[in-house]
Amino acid sequence: MAHKSGVPMVPGNLPVLLPFAPRGPAHDEFFLVRWLGAIPLAWLTAAALLLPAAVMAQSAVVAESPLDKLLRWIPFLFVQGFLFNVLISVCAMAIGTLAGAFAGLGLISRNRLIRTVVQGYVSFFRNIPWLVLLFIVLLAAPFQVTVFGTTIPLPSWIKTVIGLAIPVSANIAEVVRGAVQSVPTAQWEAAESLGFTRRQTIWQIILPQCFKRMLPPWMNWYAILTMSTPLCSLLGVGEIISLTRQAMEAEGNRPELLLPFYGFALVLFLVYCYPIARLTMWLERRFAVKT
After folding, report:
1. What pTM did the predictor assign?
2. pLDDT tens digits, one per residue of 15-30
3. Whether 104 contacts 192, CB under 8 Å
4. What span, in angstroms and rounded, lies between the C-alpha atoms of 192 and 61?
């Protein structure tokens, strides 16, 4: 019995499959930012307004409502907790960007040994779990170092900054390499014909053009890094998730506190990362290379 389909058949020809056309956002390194930035702002506003209503619905039979308890802890959680997450993300991104820029230049080096070593560094740290790396850095790094007779302590949050900066640097290196190699080869040839050295060509001609191409993926990785900072709570760092858990224990650790306290942390990350995602999408369209 012949199978009937909606595709018109020509007598004498064999049926063939149509080309697969995936729908939805592309699953590349921008997927998380595109997904976050594609959420309509009205939906986020409605969710933010429904959160206090849901909290108040849980507080009908208790003397002090969970919302009152949350309001009492909000200044502490925001200043001592969330801003510390932002500080960790900024420090890790600064170190990762600096190291990643040099690693990216190493990927395009003419020296084969440098290129091989840097390629191994990038490939290794791009493909390991961030949480495992954080545990290794926390347990392997010393608690203090002595430099010229001066003892410098290394608290846990500094180790987490280093642990987060390492995989970020590996990914930023790929961003730098991709941006440099996206510059047309005619500009390399023109600079060489004008007598520029390779170092002058990179620093004076190529890298200034790469800045706007590197900015969207750089912001993408900063958003990913910021949303990964709650991993530090598993290492005992006093960031917002650790302080939220301590605040709930101080208030009796009742089940009705879960939604308001962790919902507040979720709203803070959403409010901070959503503009970054929207700006990243705009910059990606603005600086897209026309083909």
Report:
1. 0.77
2. 555 555 555 555 566 6
3. no
4. 78
pLDDT grade for 97, boundaries at 50, 70 and 90: very high
Given a contact cutoff of 8 angstroms between Cβ atoms, the answer to whether 260 and 19 are in contact is: no
Residue 61 has pLDDT above 90, yes or no: no
Could you tell me if 248 and 258 are in contact, meaning their C-beta atoms sit under 8 angstroms apart?
A: yes
Q: Both tokens of residue 191? A: 């600079």
Contact, 164 vs 129, CB < 8 A? no
Residue 70's identity, in one-letter code, is L
Cα-atom radius of gyration of the chain, to the nearest Å? 25
Would you state the pLDDT for residue 19? 59
DSSP 288: P
Please tell me the chain's helix, strand, coil percentages from 3-state DSSP, rounded to the nearest 5.
Answer: 70, 5, 25
What are 147's strand-pairing partners? Answer: 150
- Location of structure tokens 């007779």: 149
| Burial of residue 19, with CB atoms counted within 10 A of its CB: 0-12 exposed, 13-18 middle, 19 or more buried | exposed
Whole-number mean pLDDT of the chain? 84
Q: Which amino acid, 138?
A: L
CA atoms in the 13 A half-sphere facing the CB of 198: 6
- The predicted-structure confidence for 201-226, as pLDDT tens digits, reads as follows 888 888 888 888 888 889 889 999 99
172 within 8 A of 218, measured Cβ to Cβ: yes
User: What is the predicted pLDDT for the residue at 16?
Assistant: 57
CA dihedral 223, 227, 229, 230 (to 10 degrees): 170
Mean of pLDDT values over 144-153: 84
Q: Are 25 and 213 in contact (CB under 8 A)?
A: no
**DSSP-based three-state secondary structure for 204:** helix
